[in-house]
C-alpha cells in the first residue's frame, strides 16, 4: 500500500454517509511513521444513527425474518468477496499494524475467510427449533437472534476478529454495529464494501471507527442487545461494567500469558520449530502467543541454545517485504511498553539471551528485536503480565507436576501447548492445564471448536456451535398435552 487512503464518510446501515462530527483519525504506518490514511472519527450522534438503523432493521426489516438458507447465501458471498480480495486486505492490514505480509495473507485475510466459512458450516447444520418431552408436558425450544450487536474489534487481527463476531451474528439474524480500532480502520472499509456488494440488506451493518470514549458510548447504548468485545483485560472490565447498566449480554475475549510446556522426552528441534512461530507470531501481538516457554531444568542449556539460535535468525524488517518474519509494533506506545518490560525483566534478575532493544538496522519505525529472556521464574512481572510484543520468557522446571503448576499459576487461561514424544501423555497434560484452548505437538486454532478463556482471559466463547449460540436467545414454549 503506497498511496494514502482517504475516506470522508462513514458506513451506516449499508450506505456511505457524511459524519456528524468533524474529527478525523490519522492512520500512521508503524514502519515509516508517516500518515497513510484518514477516516472520519465517529461521534456519539453517529452511534445513535447507526444503532437506530440497526434497531429498525432488526425489529422491522427482512434480515431476522429471512430463512437460514437465505442468510447463508448472502454471507457466503461475503466470504467469497474476502477470498477474492485477500491480497489487498493483507497489504492494507500490514500497512496499518506492521503484521508481516506473509502472515497477513495466511492469518489476517485467508484466516478471516476461513472463519466465515466455518460459521457457514455451523449454520447449515444448526437446529433453531426442537420439541422435547417436558416434565409437565411437551415443550418447544426455540433459538432466536439476540438483536442488535455491538462488535468491538482490536488492531492486531482486525479482519479475523471481525469475522469471529460478524459471521455468527449475521447468520443468526442479528444486526451489527462494527467498531474498528483507530489504529486499523482501513480494512473495515473494504469489509463494508464487500458486504454491500454481497447484498446485505439496509440497516444490517454499520462501521464506526472511533476511540475508547465513543466505544464506551456504543457499549452503553440502550439500543444494543449484545456486546462482543476483544481487547485488554482492563478494557474488558470496563465494557462489562458499562454494559451491566442495561443488563446487556456480553462476550469478552481478553488477554493471555500462555505456556508452552516442553516435556523431557521432547525432540529439541521439533519443539523449537513449533514454538518459535507460536511465540513470535504477528510480532508477538497475539493474545494466544506462547509467551512462557517451560523447559526441563535438566535440559535447560540445550533448549536455551536452540531457542536463541532460532529467535536470533528471525528476519526483522519492512512488513510488506514477503521475507519479513517480525515487523514493527503497531504504535510508539507499544514499542515503549515492550522496551520498558525488557528493562523491568533485567532489573528483576532475568537474563536477555537474545535481542533486548531496537534493531540497529531500523532507523525508523516502532521496532523491537525478537527478545528471549532466560533465568525467569514465574513470580517475575515479565512472566505474569501480558507484554504484547516480541518478548518471550524461558522458564526452567523440575518435574512434570511443577511444570503443570507453573502453567496454571497465571491470572490468564487462554491458550497453551505441550510438546512430547507421547501424544497420549500430552493429552493428559492438556486435561490438567486450566485454559480455554490447548495444542499437543502443534499450535493451531480451529474455527469449528470453541475459543475463549478461563479466568481473566474472558467470558463466553467464539467459533463452533458454542460461539454461534452466543448470538441467540433461548425460548421455551409450553404445549398442550398431545400436541
From TrEMBL:
According to its UniProt record, what is one Pfam family this protein matches? Answer: Aldedh
* Swiss-Prot/TrEMBL keywords: Oxidoreductase
The record's active-site residues are 253
* Top-level lineage group: Bacteria
- Does Acyltransferase show up as a keyword for this record? no
Give this protein's Gene Ontology molecular function annotations: oxidoreductase activity, acting on the aldehyde or oxo group of donors, NAD or NADP as acceptor
In this chain the Aldehyde dehydrogenase domain maps to 24-477
CDD domains per the UniProt record, alphabetical: ALDH_AldA-Rv0768 (cd07139)
Q: Which family does it belong to?
A: Belongs to the aldehyde dehydrogenase family.
Instruction: Show the PANTHER family listed in the entry.
Output: ALDEHYDE DEHYDROGENASE, ALDEHYDE DEHYDROGENASE-RELATED
Q: Identify this protein by name.
A: Aldehyde dehydrogenase
Which species is listed as the source? Answer: Streptomyces yokosukanensis
